[in-house]
Design goal:
mainly beta, 31 strands, globular, 3 domains, about 475 residues, Jelly Rolls, seven-stranded antiparallel beta sheet, about 5% helix
Length: about 475
């Protein structure tokens, strides 16, 4: 069956600037998250974030085209259940007054799904529990059957599902997570990794979980260096803050057709190990006074892919574009291709000043564990702002969680990065520090790595390491 994933979004930018709209108090949850670093937390009435089911137009703005069918999927965590009911998902008509579909969470942990105008409903036989991550998928089927399925994120098993006949001949214009018109009634809910696919043809879509599996994530990659183009003011450190800093640090340009792109953090910097990449969304948060316009650019290899010119106005908004395939190959994304992508902007106008305060690349990917050769020579540079850990033999950047205690040594340099061209010298350096313990942790500020060197000398540790590895390094 053909799949048409039209948009995906977690909460990694730590504000609602990339949603179509937000209402009420939507907190940025940084502790209880699903395969990421931030999620949406909703615990107040009439609050939530909205999306257009038709996704993004060619210029990166939200399209207003309504759709007949939609699967809407998200990771869901109940901190507490409502005393009665709380709205979880509402699909609305163009007037935003009629609910085409509504899902509510009940006090028992069951879900009830209502059809258009809440004329009929059905409640799941199974229920969710507090303190557990689930993947919830909801289907709106014009003149057909609506459905809800809740699966355990870690096991993939279905815990709650039901259907209700849809009685309308109407399309949907907006999708809203969180309470829309009712009280939250004591519920405390966390939403993460939002994925939906929509089409006017039912056969063009399927539950995203069928393609992705429950272990998927939407991860944010931020700038970490200069790109191929560098014609605007300042550098990548001025467009890498989340949430965006409302213009405190920016890249600007006043000359038409000038471009900048930024190298992006590789996928090894994601909170979870990427297996298969299904889609990527490039975005910038920008303004342009005097009615000027800006083009968003993604560069893959030597191929530049641009949006059409977009006029953001004088209040910061997000311009974004979804890429289901790699523009350089017209084929599916690979991890290595994502690792080399650059994102930036082109000034398309002679009016006013073009200003960008944040650049990002969000990827939709499946979680996996990639087997690697055991590494026991690591290198860090205390002057490296990214605090990267590299394989001492190859120079390859490694995820923090792969650094192993009691079997390795760390070379800490100052003001220089390792020479990966001469790995044969990895053991001929007096600056190698024996590692006694490694603590990998994830907190509100991101992932961190604490390395404790051993009191033993290198020779003693090397002998012990050889013994523990049966004489093989």
């Amino acid at each position: 069956m053909a799949h048409n994933i039209v948009f995906h979004d977690g909460a990694e930018t730590r504000d609602e600037v990339r949603c179509f709209a937000s209402t009420g108090t939507v907190s940025n949850e940084l502790t209880t998250v699903s395969y990421g670093r931030a999620a949406y937390r909703i615990a107040t009435s009439s609050s939530g974030v909205s999306y257009k089911p038709s996704g993004l137009a060619a210029n990166g703005s939200w399209s207003t085209t309504e759709k007949n069918h939609q699967w809407f999927t998200f990771h869901f965590y109940a901190v507490s259940l409502p005393s009665t009911i709380s709205q979880v998902l509402v699909l609305l008509d163009a007037t935003l007054a009629i609910r085409r579909l509504q899902v509510v969470l009940n006090s028992t942990g069951t879900f009830t799904i209502y059809n258009s105008g809440v004329a009929a409903n059905s409640t799941t036989a199974g229920a969710i529990a507090t303190g557990t991550w689930y993947v919830v998928s909801v289907y709106f089927n014009r003149n057909g059957t609506n459905q809800i399925v809740a699966r355990n994120r870690d096991t993939g098993s279905t815990v709650a599902t039901t259907t209700v006949a849809e009685n309308s001949n109407n399309t949907i214009a907006e999708s809203r997570i969180g309470p829309y018109s009712d009280a939250v009634n004591g519920a405390d809910m966390i939403f993460d990794n939002i994925v939906f696919e929509s089409s006017d043809t039912a056969a063009n879509i399927d539950d995203p979980v069928n393609q992705l599996g429950t272990k998927y994530a939407c991860g944010l990659l931020l700038p970490n260096g200069a790109g191929f183009y560098d014609q605007w003011t300042n550098d990548y450190t001025y467009v890498d803050e989340v949430p965006h800093d409302s213009g405190s640090t920016v890249r600007q340009e006043t000359t038409i057709n000038e471009v900048f792109t930024q190298a992006m953090t590789p996928t090894s910097g994601l909170a979870a190990q990427a297996g298969t990449i299904y889609a990527a969304t490039a975005f910038s948060v920008e303004i342009n006074d005097a009615g000027g316009t800006i083009i968003l650019r993604l560069r893959s290899g030597t191929t530049d892919a641009d949006t059409s010119a977009f006029g953001p106005g004088v209040s910061y908004v997000a311009q974004q574009r979804l890429f289901l395939t790699d523009p350089a190959t017209a084929g599916s994304w690979t991890v290595s291709a994502i690792d080399s992508v650059e994102v930036g902007a082109k000034r398309a106008t002679s009016s006013g000043t073009s200003t960008v305060t944040l650049i990002g690349l969000e990827v939709l990917y499946t979680i996996t564990v990639v087997g690697r050769t055991r590494v026991i020579a690591y290198v860090m540079d205390d002057m490296d702002p990214m605090q990267r850990v590299l394989d001492g033999r190859t120079g390859e950047e490694l995820p923090y969680e792969e650094v192993q205690p009691n079997v390795g040594w760390m070379r800490v340099t100052s003001g220089e990065m390792p020479d990966s061209a001469s790995p044969s010298n990895a053991w001929e350096d007096d600056t190698l520090l024996p590692i006694d313990s490694v603590k990998y942790s994830q907190s509100a500020s991101g992932v961190s790595l604490d390395i404790v060197p051993s009191a033993e000398g290198l020779g003693e540790q090397l002998i012990r390491g050889l013994a523990n590895s049966a004489g093989s390094l």
